[in-house]
## 1
Amino acid sequence: MRNKFVVTITDLNGSRHFLLHQLVKKFIIYFTLFIIAVIIFGAWLISMLYDEVSALEAKKEDLLRKEYQLSASNAKLQRQIETKTKEFEAINDKISDIEELIGLKTPETSTIDERLKTISLTSTQQQHLFRSIPNGWVIENNGLTAKFGWRTHPILKKREFHRGIDLRAKVGTPIYAPADGVVEFAGYHKSSGFGYLVILNHNYGFKTNFAHLDKKMVVKTGEFVKKGQLIGYTGNSGLSTGPHLHYEVRFITRPLDPINFLNWSSNNFEEIFKKEQRVSWQSLLKTMDDRSRLQKQP
Ligand SMILES: [Zn+2]
């Protein structure tokens, strides 16, 4: 029994003796088993957690990818919204232009007759009006070949607003100024298709355009002209299907139907106020009335 302790355990059934080295052996065995169990359990736990972590990681990646896709499609939609907004604005502008052209935007139309009644012009004032505002035929009257308004362009074959009137005329027909004014432009107009063009700037915001003229120009830019003065000859220049005069009358920038001005004379002095309601006639007449009253004062 050298180097060995004896442990005696005594209970009701008697005593048992253990040699210490046996105890140590058992302890080592149990301890080893315990450690192995711990390791196995730990490994199992770690692998469980590891699986969970990889599952979460995969989920995270999936979500990130989805987020990226969503933000990409969001940016795309944002771009589409911007484009649509721009298109919408452009269409709005166009509608506004068209309204302007067809005369839906006509201010002060309802009460015009009422107000005009209160103003009667003297013959001198009438004469002044007929010298200042385009009136009468600008060439010999041989009828029209195209009216003012919407039409299909004879050469370009697309719908467009014909801003003037086409007057039938042989090449070389003399053209006369419809009112006093200054030549704003006289020459070949490349971009518009008008060919040789004369633009007259009259009083009170009126302008007249004469297009497709003969190349033999009569007036120069900056020159003053009187009503009835020769300003050029008709031709067939620019985008034109045949000899004619394209005649435009504009108030500020609005194109007006020239027929009302061609047919305007002292015989039907008041008719144009009803036919062309896109001009603030009453305001013009009132200004002239006020001026003559001022002149009468001593
Ligand atoms: Zn025309």
Note: The mean pLDDT is 87.
## 2
Amino acid sequence: MSARTLSRPASLEALDETAVPLAGGTDLVPLVRDGLVEAETLVDVRSLLPRGVEPGGIGIGAGTTLADLERSGEVPDALREACRLAASPQLRAMGTIGGNLLQATRCWYWRLAFPCYLHGGDRCHAREGEHREHAIFAVEPCASAHPSDPAAALLALGAVVETTRRRLPLAELYRLPTEDDRRLTTLAGGELILRLRLEEPDASVYLKAMDRQRWSFPLVGVAAARYGEETRLALAGVAPIPWALGSPADLDAATPLPGTAYKVDIARALVGRALAAVR
Ligand SMILES: Cc1cc2nc3c(=O)[nH]c(=O)nc-3n(C[C@H](O)[C@H](O)[C@H](O)COP(=O)(O)OP(=O)(O)OC[C@H]3O[C@@H](n4cnc5c(N)ncnc54)[C@H](O)[C@@H]3O)c2cc1C
Ligand code: SF4
């Protein structure tokens, strides 16, 4: 293990910049075990995070599990369905929405510790190698595909993230990696997600293409949320970060890899169905 101790502080004030927060641990624990996350101390924040859904304006505590959201009558359909279609019942019972938004890439080169671009190297092994599950947008310099279903739903639902330091639109929680900074999020060390706030849509939906009917990450996930005449679209599994799609025509701007071209067709079909469903 690359973490030496587990602390359970009595309040969030005890977290410093080096703290590595542990919520459900469904993503973090395997990463620590495999040496992909180095941490002197893991800080168990689960009991300190707000949990549950506040109706009216919809606030969601970061410690709310995907299972809680899947069962909630208060959250919009797109989010409920994105949670229901994620992972397995056991993982949804442990995994929190905050941890889900911050889960690491499933790119197997990254998970096997290849010295790739996202690990600080200068090559994308997936682009040159096996990449059937990878991206169709923003494929350079890293072609990974963001694995979170709920993130796409929350992006379409205009979620705002409240952290221990600021409020920001969900889109600003994510960034594409650059030469001098390979991170995929803008969260600072020790900064915690506390809550998400969403706007109630007139209608919303989440559709997911996956290899199996259960326990599969999205090949392509499409969320649509309609607010009056405006419909917002967001995609999972198509770029290193959750991807907002301005309009269906924006799929023409996809730059797939040879092995991911099929995803463009799937996205086109799901976007068409999602728009029909919320109309
Ligand atoms: C086999 C498998 C299949 C899966 N399938 C899917 C799928 O189909 N779709 C999908 O969307 N997801 C899927 N997942 C991901 C799963 O939903 C996430 O692992 C889970 O939601 C993460 O939540 P957690 O509370 O366990 O996070 P943790 O593992 O505790 O933490 C994950 C990361 O977030 C950080 N963190 C946690 N909470 C906070 C916070 N409040 N503030 C700041 N940082 C925080 C941690 O430090 C860590 O970096 C799958 C996971 C597995 C293992
Ligand atoms: S897709 Fe990204 S994470 Fe995967 S090998 Fe390429 S640079 Fe690394």
Note: The longest helix spans residues 261-278.
